[in-house]
Design a protein that fits this description.
Length: about 180
């Protein structure tokens, strides 16, 4: 496979579409084992997780499963704390429900931690976190995804939903920033 270039930066092939599909399938089987007779709500965190979430949701083959899409935004306006976050687009009442948050990547874990906290206030019976990618060495919180596709070193990657300035999400494989000059 060839290298790709975005914003003058070179990226090398890292995870092929076949490797990704295999791990998505494995994670889907783990979730299916845990939720086969339930009606879990998959909450896809846009934009990055869209491609993974849809593949995972289909692959799980859980009859009662539902999917919804949210964005997690810094509160805009006159927030005094500057750290307040809000979930955009969560129309479902998640009270008493089993929720599986689907993320593309957990890096520092700050986004996931705030999201978990925000959702916990809405009374779900359970919240689990599924992330395609996890960078354990970058973690600055105690968030650990319950379901993980790949644990990877703290390098910048793109493709399969992950972007650089909004681009490269449509690559079917995942590429890593080249360290060669
Ligand atoms: P956090 O540091 O765990 O809060 O991750 C915040 C966000 O940074 C993720 O949801 C991604 O959108 C983005 N991110 C982290 N690492 C990468 C990467 O390697 N490539 C592209 N986006 C990334
Ligand atoms: Mg993201």
């Amino acid at each position: 496979m060839d290298k790709v270039t975005y914003n003058g930066l070179t990226f090398e092939p890292y995870l092929t579409r076949d490797e990704i599909a295999r791990q998505v399938k494995r994670v889907a089987e783990e979730i299916r084992r845990d939720y086969a007779d339930d009606n879990p709500l998959f909450l896809c965190v846009l934009n990055g997780a869209a491609i993974f979430a849809v593949d995972l949701f289909r692959e799980c083959r859980i009859k009662g499963a539902e999917i919804s899409f949210i964005r997690f935004k810094s509160y805009e306006g006159t927030s005094t704390t500057g750290t307040a976050k809000q979930v955009m687009g969560l129309d479902e009442n998640i009270e008493g429900r089993k929720v599986i948050i689907v993320e593309d990547i957990v890096d520092t874990g700050i986004t996931a931690q705030q999201l978990l906290k925000t959702l916990a206030d809405k009374g779900p019976s359970e919240v689990k976190l599924a992330s395609l990618l996890f960078k354990p060495e970058s973690l600055q919180t105690d968030v650990r995804p319950d379901y993980i596709g790949f644990s990877i070193p703290p390098k910048f990657i793109i493709g399969y939903g992950l972007d650089i300035d909004g681009q490269a999400r449509n690559l079917s494989d995942i590429f890593v920033l080249s360290e060669e000059k």
